[in-house]
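Researcher: Please predict.
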Amino acid sequence: MATFVLVPGAWLGAWAWEATAHALRERGHAALPMTLTGLGERSALATPEVGLDTHIDDITAFVVEQDLREVTLVAHSYAAVPVTGAAARLGPRLERLVYLDSAPFAEDTCLLDVMPDDVVDQLHRQVAEHGDGWRLPLPPFELLGRFSTLEGLDEVQLGLMRTRSTPQPFSTFQQRLTHVGELGSDVDHVVVACHDAKALLDAGVPTLDFLNQSPWRRFHLPTGHWPMLSTPVQLAETFDAVVSSTC
């Protein structure tokens, strides 16, 4: 059975993984959701200084301090950036790296680089007008849907996102990734593509086409960008299939 470390995307905490983690445990896996600094139940730690490096340190420490081995490290959405940074540090502790509706980031890139310019401008306005110049509250759903499909989320789940989300320290979106290392050939490389990522991969977008090639393995989950909320049990079944197909 596998040991899953589940890293949530922007505005979320470990709470977002609760149903998926429960379903994974029912299948005999160890499921360890985590919360990054400044978010969720750790929102009191949010400061203007919390940046991408902070979250890379969070993920590394979470694994090392618990002496976890043969880890399946899962990155949802924004978490792809710090997970990419932490993966090289964790080295032999990793058995598998899973990007959930996301992809690894290259050296000297940040999350804002993959968003349309007009969306970036609107996020900057949100930070200036509603986040004291350094925090990004969960954007209005109309804006959020511009870069991440809300498909599969009903009014209850949207309400949960709105009430339980916490502002994201904006530096985590702005800081560029540095010191990206190579992963060993023995680390299983997986992408779980929801509708967002599947459309891009099927289109053969040049910057993502490497995910269609070895050593990457690709799985599809037919839902929107937040499957831990829209289809949590099916997400656990997909993760179980990822692990089972390499046993």
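Model: The two ends are 9 Å apart (CA to CA).
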